[in-house]
Amino acid sequence: MALRFGLIGLGKHGMQAVSPAFFDPACTGGALVAVCDVNPAATAAFARPVEAKYNDHRRMLAEAGLDAVYIAAGMDHHYRLATDALRAGKHVIVEKPMAATLDECREMTDLAQASGLTLAVNFETRYSEQNEILRRWIREGRFGEIDALHFTNMWDGHKSFGPIQQRRARLMELAGALDCGIHKLDQARFLVGGVWADVFARGAWMGEDFTPPTHIGIVGQLDNGVLVTLNASLSWAAHIDPRPMVNTMEIAGTEGVAICRSSRDFRNMTMELFSRTLCETHELRPTGHTSDIVLVVNEFAEVVAHGRTADTILASGEDGYWAQYATEQANGQAIRGRIRREP
Question: Is the pTM of this model over 0.70?
Fold first, then answer.
C-alpha cells in the first residue's frame, strides 16, 4: 500500500520535479494527498488533485492523516520542518542539503532513530545508471584497490541574470557551489564507503559576494584512505549567455581506471573502464529529477515497511550528516582563507 504523503514547499523544485513524481504511474510507494506552502499563491496555483492544501505545516501534520512528508522547502527551513514532522510521528524525505548546520543534521538523525521513524535525504543521483555501472565494476573487482576519486562539476546555477536570479542568489548564500556539489561528496562515500577524515578547501567568488564560495576546490580523504578531489561551481559561465557545462569523474585503482564524461549540456555521458580484466565503454543518457525521485519514493516506502538492507540505495540521515560535514568543513575553510582582491 502506498504511503500517504504531504509535500512541504511549492517552489520551483517542489512544483516542477517533486510533485510530478507522485503522479507518475511508476510511483507505487507514495500517494500525494496534501500540499503545503507558506505562500497562499503557491498553494492556489497547485492544480494537481490532492485532498487538502495548507499554508501551515503544523495543521497539515495534525489534520491530513499522513504517513510521511517530503520537504522541498529551502535548506534553512529543513531542520524545523523535519523535526516537527518527526515529532508528529511522520516519516521524512528531505531535500539536500539536509540542513543548514551539522548540529541540526545530527539532531534530526537522532530524533528519527529515537522515534523509530525513517529519515531519508534525497540524493537522487545515487539511482543513476552511471552509479549502477560503477558499482558493478567495483563489485567485480575491476579496479583492484581504489585509491582516488576525482570529480569536476561546473555549471552556472541558472545564471546570475534572468528570471530566477533571486532563487539562485538565495541558494548561493546558503551553501554556495556545494548546493549541488554536495551530490558528489555523497557519491564518493556511496561508491567506496568510509566517512570523512580530512577536508581541505579553497574558494573563488567569481565576481559575486555571497558568504560561501560560488566556485570551490576540495581535497579530502575518507577514513578508508581513499583520496577525493572535487572542483565544483555554480558560477562557471554564470555571467555570460553561452552555457558550457563540465561534469567529469575519474576513478583510480591499482588494477584499473574509469573515466566518465558528460556532454557540454549534461544530456549524455560516456563511461570508459580500462582494467587488467576488462575494457568497456557505455554511452548513457541521464534521467531527470522527476524519474529519479520516483525511485527515491518507491525505495523509501520499502525501507519504511521492511527496513534497510545491504542493497539499499536510499540515502539515510547519517549519509546526509556526512555530506553536510564535508560541506561545512569545505565552505568554512574557504571562507576563512579568502583573499580579497584590491579594487
Answer: yes
